[in-house]
C-alpha cells in the first residue's frame, strides 16, 4: 500500500466512510481543539448568510455530529441531516431526523428543501459536480446553499503560519487525540479542492446564480453562497 494519506479515487467513498466511522466518537473534541472553537462561529455566519427563515426546510449534507442542525433548529424546526458515515450519525447531538446516504444521490424529491448547508465536506466527495447538481435538483426555486470549506489565506504571513499549523501541528493533535491516519488525510485532502475560481465555475455549471465567496478568519476558511433561480 502507498504511504500517501489519500485513497485511490475509485475507493474514495468507502475510505471516507470508514475513516469517519473510526473517528466519530472523538470528532467534536478534535474539531473544537483544532479550530479553537471557531468552527461554530463559521457555521453561525453561514446560517445567517443563507437567510434561513422559520418554516423553511433545511438539509445539512455531511452533517457529521449535527453542528449545523443544532444551530438551525433555533431558526426553524424543519431540519434534516444526511451523512455517509453511520458512526457520525450515531454520535449526533441533534434530535432531528437523520439519514445515512451519499451526497452523490440524495434520497430527497426534486424541489423539496429551501436551504442546504454543508460544512467542510466538499473535498471528501468523490464527484463535486455531481454533488452540486444534486443540490440544485432538490432545492426549491429561490433556494439557497451555504458551503463552508478550508482555504488558503491570501496574506503571505498568515498563509505561512497556517500552512505550518495545518500541515504539521493538526496531524500531531489528531494523532494524540484520535486517529493518526485520519488527521494525515485532513491536510492532504485539500488537494481534492478546486481553487476558488474553478469552484465558482462548477456552481455556474450546476445552474446556480448569485455566487458569492467570503473569506473567514483571515482566509483560513471560506464560505460559498449560491441560489437557485426562480423559474
Defining key terms:
alpha/beta; 231 residues
How confident is the prediction overall: mean pLDDT? 95
Helix-strand string: HHHEHEHEEHEHHHEE
Largest sheet, strands/sense/barrel: 7 strands, mixed
Kindly state the number of beta strands: 7
Structural class: alpha/beta
Report the helical percentage.
40-55%
Intertermini distance: 50 Å
Q: Strands of the biggest beta sheet: in what spatial order?
A: 3-2-1-4-5-7-6
Shape: globular
Which ranges are low-confidence, i.e. pLDDT below 50, for 5 or more consecutive residues? none
Strand content: 15-25%
Number of helices: 9
Describe the protein's architecture and organization.
The structure is a single chain. Helix 2 packs antiparallel against helix 7 and helix 7 runs antiparallel to helix 8. The protein starts with 11 loop residues before the first helix and ends with a strand. Helices cover 42% and strands 21% of the residues. It is globular and about 50 Å long. The protein is built from 9 helices and 7 strands; from the N terminus they run H-H-H-E-H-E-H-E-E-H-E-H-H-H-E-E. Strands 3-2-1-4-5-7-6 form a 7-stranded mixed β-sheet, with helices on both faces.
The gist of it:
The chain has helices at residues 12-23, 27-35, 38-50, 67-72, 86-90, 128-138, 156-177, 180-188, 196-205; strands spanning 58-61, 79-83, 98-100, 113-119, 139-150, 208-216, 221-228. It is an alpha/beta fold.
Topology:
Layout: H1 12-23, H2 27-35, H3 38-50, E1 58-61, H4 67-72, E2 79-83, H5 86-90, E3 98-100, E4 113-119, H6 128-138, E5 139-150, H7 156-177, H8 180-188, H9 196-205, E6 208-216, E7 221-228
Parallel strand pairs: 1-2, 1-4, 2-3, 4-5
Antiparallel strand pairs: 5-7, 6-7
Helix pairs in contact: 2-7, 7-8
Amino acid at each position: 500500500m502507498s504511504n500517501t494519506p489519500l485513497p485511490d479515487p475509485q475507493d474514495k467513498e468507502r475510505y471516507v466512510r470508514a475513516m469517519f466511522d473510526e473517528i466519530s466518537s472523538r470528532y467534536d473534541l478534535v474539531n473544537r481543539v483544532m479550530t479553537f472553537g471557531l468552527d461554530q462561529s463559521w457555521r453561525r455566519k453561514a446560517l445567517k448568510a443563507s437567510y434561513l427563515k422559520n418554516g423553511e426546510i433545511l438539509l445539512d449534507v455531511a452533517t457529521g455530529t449535527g453542528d449545523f442542525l443544532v444551530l438551525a433548529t433555533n431558526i426553524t424546526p424543519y431540519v434534516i441531516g444526511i451523512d455517509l458515515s453511520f458512526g457520525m450519525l450515531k454520535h449526533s447531538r441533534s434530535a432531528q431526523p437523520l439519514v445515512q446516504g451519499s451526497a452523490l444521490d440524495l434520497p430527497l424529491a426534486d424541489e423539496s428543501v429551501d436551504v442546504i448547508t454543508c460544512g467542510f465536506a466538499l473535498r471528501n466527495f468523490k464527484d463535486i459536480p455531481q454533488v452540486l447538481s444534486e443540490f440544485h435538483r432538490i432545492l426549491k426555486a429561490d433556494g439557497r446553499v451555504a458551503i463552508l470549506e478550508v482555504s488558503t489565506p491570501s496574506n503571505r504571513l498568515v498563509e505561512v503560519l497556517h500552512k505550518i499549523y495545518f500541515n504539521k501541528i493538526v496531524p500531531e493533535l489528531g494523532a494524540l487525540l484520535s486517529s493518526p491516519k485520519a488527521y494525515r488525510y485532513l491536510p492532504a485532502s485539500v488537494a481534492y479542492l478546486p481553487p476558488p475560481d474553478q469552484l465558482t465555475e462548477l456552481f455556474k455549471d450546476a445552474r446556480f446564480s448569485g455566487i458569492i465567496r467570503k473569506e473567514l478568519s483571515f482566509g483560513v476558511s471560506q464560505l460559498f453562497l449560491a441560489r437557485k433561480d426562480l423559474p
